[in-house]
Design brief:
The chain has 72 residues and is mostly helical. It contains four helices and two strands; from the N terminus they run βααβαα. Strands 1-2 form a two-stranded parallel ribbon. The radius of gyration is 12 Å and the shape is globular.
């Protein structure tokens, strides 16, 4: 029986997943891709939305993350 990997991600990881220029982008993608299910504290969702608005990145990015099946 295989083990499933679940991850608890904070705002820093979510930003690194979305921002290709982030120094931790590759590692964050590895963590995101390797997880079958992710958990994100509500405050991290709020902080991510603030980051996206502040940097004029729009809400499309957060919609893509939230629509990913592992975000359940």
């Amino acid at each position: 029986m295989g083990k499933s990997l679940e991850a608890l991600l904070d705002t820093n990881v979510l930003v690194a997943v979305l921002v290709e220029d982030d120094v931790n982008h590759r590692e964050a993608l590895r963590v995101w891709s390797g997880a079958e299910k992710v958990h994100v504290p509500f405050i991290s969702v709020v902080e991510l939305e603030y980051f996206l608005v502040k940097h004029k990145l729009g809400s499309k990015a957060i919609q893509e993350l939230v629509n990913d099946p592992k975000w359940r």
